């Protein structure tokens, strides 16, 4: 059982094609094939999916996956990026930090205004960006109205973006959910009206492991899971931890980043700047001239851990299909009858504990919550090792 492109109700196999057909007709969409080698698609006259991207993106990076992932928010043709909210945790801004099992001596750092500005420069956009609160919520119902002014902007930008949008917006969260929970605590009716779906990349399924994004602010995660907002949950971990392979978590791994060599030059430099922890004042000019070869070569050899792909695939309705060149993430009309791998949202009821841990049971009764399901995790990983590089090589600003 999966969700329709409109994301409003579950559908089964054969009906899916009919619903897509209607969706495309209603949205006056014309698909044109572009660049057969990359499988990239350009869509004209389409209604793009408006999104807010919430990410704990820093510069220099803490997890370079966030720097890597934000490219998709700008480049995917199905998506219209309306705002970027930078999730910030004060202790990670320091020169070094020791947080439980986690030790980090690669600071200091600041919220990722530089990478977002670089992407606005590369794509010729002016996507607004603001940082959320730097400190944890004090309770589940905390509206966070009395913290430092700078960190208010992220909550306010969520509310403004929703208020200004004529249509409902998808919120994608790849970090703590603090700014979203604060927005919910301030104006729940606005979120009920204007959030089409909240996609949370966080948690563990099965539970029993305190996952990173939950641990950043457990009150925020539990608060939203207990809300009546439409939620799609993409657990990062299983009970075994964040690098394990389960049916309902999203982790997969790229053995190296050699494919970045074949990406559009400015996007390649953006990634080199991030992975190389470059500290240059002319961070926009740096997008227009090649970085030193040793920095780029170091990046190409890097192993890369990924948790974010499932959200983009589900949001855009792309299918992971095997075609002549290998596996590709393809829009449904182009995917045709090619054999595909599962990547679905299944309706669940959740039992959420205060620490953000949860149990789930699949249900046929009405629910506002869906859980990611990728079937065989190793087959999913093997396919994404072909499909994601091809997708990124097809991105053109
Ligand atoms: Ca993240």
What do you see in this structure?
With 397 residues, the protein is an alpha/beta fold. It has a single domain, classed as Ribonucleoside hydrolase-like (Inosine-uridine Nucleoside N-ribohydrolase, Chain A, Alpha-Beta Complex), CATH 3.90.245. It has 13 helices and 22 strands. The chain has helices at 13-26, 64-75, 113-123, 152-164, 178-186, 188-194, 212-216, 218-225, 265-275, 293-300, 309-316, 332-335, 377-394, and strands at 2-3, 10-11, 30-33, 41-44, 49-55, 58-59, 79-86, 97-99, 102-104, 110-111, 129-131, 169-174, 195-200, 231-233, 252-254, 304-306, 319-323, 326-330, 340-341, 344-352, 358-362, 369-373. Strand 17 (319-323) and strand 18 (326-330) form a beta hairpin. The two termini are 35 Å apart. The chain binds calcium ion. Calcium ion (CA) binds at residues 55-56, 63, 66, 174-175.
* Spatial arrangement of strands, main beta sheet: 11-7-5-12-13-14-22-20-21
- In which range does the helix fraction lie? 25-40%
Secondary structure class reads alpha/beta
- Examine the coordinates and then state which fold CATH places here, giving the name of the CATH topology: Inosine-uridine Nucleoside N-ribohydrolase, Chain A
Query: Major sheet: size, sense and barrel closure?
Result: 9 strands, mixed
DSSP strand tally: 22
Strand content: 15-25%
Instruction: Please give the CATH architecture.
Output: Alpha-Beta Complex
Average pLDDT figure: 90
Bound molecules: calcium ion
Q: Supply the number of structural domains.
A: 1
